[in-house]
Design goal:
Seminal Fluid Protein  PDC-109 (Domain B); 2 domains; eleven-stranded mixed beta sheet; alpha/beta; CBM_sf_5/12; TIM Barrel; Chitinase; three-stranded antiparallel beta sheet
């Protein structure tokens, strides 16, 4: 499962805080909502790595920043990684977030994660005041001027009914506050899944949100760590898990269109070998298959755990936080997913997604070329559509995804959005 390793040392304070305040928290300009379809891999915030540097190197312009949690159980104050030396402040990650935005991207702060959910330091499990929880969310929103907050709920947090209710009541308070401020705010839930959709514990979180009139903009399922003793074909299981979630959301939100329901679905893979072991390996061949399918269905989010794992530095090792465990080029998974980001913005702060149609997948002309197929043979001049873009083959090819990048030897020429 998505989790946080305890930090070995305090994160260093970022210099240039005054610049970060000006660039991140601009009171006279509302933050732009995220694209309707966004690739945003998780960034392990406790490592000391610079998120802006990794975003630039990987091509992943949007990052999900993991994690925010209380330092001790019972606290109503959130810190990055539960580290009291890393408060919610423009002095911590402020200048890096500004640099990410300057590069055309943005960040999604994420609360929770396996460690917080296991130790009672997830903010709504820890804090018993709904108003204080809402204030924590609002502080993150205004400090970093973000438009979406992710809530990673798993392990003990899935059975803490009081925490679930407090969290959803706080979401509703923040949404009312945002509407009064004219500010765009979205909330996503990240939840564990089976290969056929959410277990009842995950559905209970969403049922409670509906009961509290808390709008859930996206449900992001972790399509890994099934721990069911089976050998998995991870791309196929992603499709069945996401389809199961789509059908479950139809029951919870009967007034939404099919396109709106698919746009509520997010998928997070664990690239390479997950915590369970080799039987659950998301391969480099799985990545373009999932990217194409997610684009065709109109999912709202494509992500993976985690950006620092997107390299082949530890062949055969499962569950590492610093490498995938499979043979790959550095950033190969990021390159396979990066074209997924497309479309306009998500719902406005005053409009329910139940009545707002999802944005088109791209701003270019309609894709008329056939979708790329991993088993088809293409010759020079053949055109395909992939992840909302048009590609033309330079020479004979089979099985090589348009998302594969090898410089001058790229098989596919990118002809732009369609």
């Amino acid at each position: 499962m998505i989790r946080k390793r305890l930090s070995a040392a305090l994160l260093a304070a970022v210099t240039g805080a005054a610049t970060a305040v000006a660039m991140v928290h601009a009171a006279d300009a509302a933050a732009a909502p995220l694209p309707a379809h966004v690739f945003a891999p998780y960034f392990e915030a406790w490592t000391g790595d610079n998120p802006a540097t990794l975003a630039q190197q990987s091509g992943a312009k949007h990052l999900t920043m993991a994690f925010l949690q209380a330092a001790t159980k019972g606290s109503c104050t959130a810190y990055w990684n539960g580290d009291s030396g890393s408060p919610v402040s423009t002095a911590v990650f402020g200048s890096q977030i500004a640099a990410i935005r300057a590069g055309g991207g943005d960040v999604i702060p994420s609360f929770g994660g396996y460690t917080a959910d296991n130790t009672g330091t997830e903010i709504a499990d820890s804090c018993t005041s709904v108003g204080s929880i809402a204030a924590v969310f609002e502080n993150v929103i205004t400090t970093y001027d973000v438009t979406r907050i992710d809530l990673d709920i798993e392990d003990n947090s899935l059975t803490n009914s009081a925490g679930i209710d407090r969290r959803n009541k706080a979401i509703k308070q923040v949404q009312d506050w945002a509407a009064a401020q004219g500010r765009t705010v979205q909330f996503s839930y990240t939840l564990p899944t089976t290969t056929t959709g959410l277990a009842d514990s995950g559905l209970a979180v969403l049922r409670n949100a509906v009961a509290n009139n808390a709008r859930v903009d996206l449900v992001n399922i972790m399509t890994f760590d099934y721990y069911d003793g089976a050998t998995h074909q991870m791309a196929a299981d992603t499709k069945t898990a996401a389809t199961g979630l789509h059908d479950q959301l139809r029951q919870l939100y009967p007034g939404r269109t099919d396109a709106q329901l698919w746009n509520m679905v997010g998928v997070t893979e664990m690239i390479g070998i997950d915590d369970y072991g080799p039987a659950e390996t998301f391969t480099t061949a799985d990545a373009p298959v999932v990217a194409q399918w997610a684009t065709e269905k109109g999912l709202g989010l494509l992500s993976f755990w985690a950006l620092q794992r997107d390299n082949g530095g530890c062949p055969g090792v499962g569950g590492s936080d610093s490498c995938s465990g499979v043979s790959q080029s550095t950033w190969q998974f990021s390159h396979a997913f990066e074209a997924f980001t497309s479309g306009g913005t998500g719902p406005s702060p005053s409009t329910s997604v139940s009545t707002t149609p999802s944005s088109p997948p791209s701003s270019g002309p309609a894709c008329t070329a056939p979708a790329w197929n991993a088993t088809s043979v293409y010759t020079g001049g053949s055109q395909v559509s992939f992840a909302g873009r048009l590609y033309r083959a330079k020479w004979w090819t089979r099985g090589e995804s348009p998302a594969t990048h090898s410089g001058q030897w790229d098989v596919w020429a990118d002809k732009g959005p369609c």
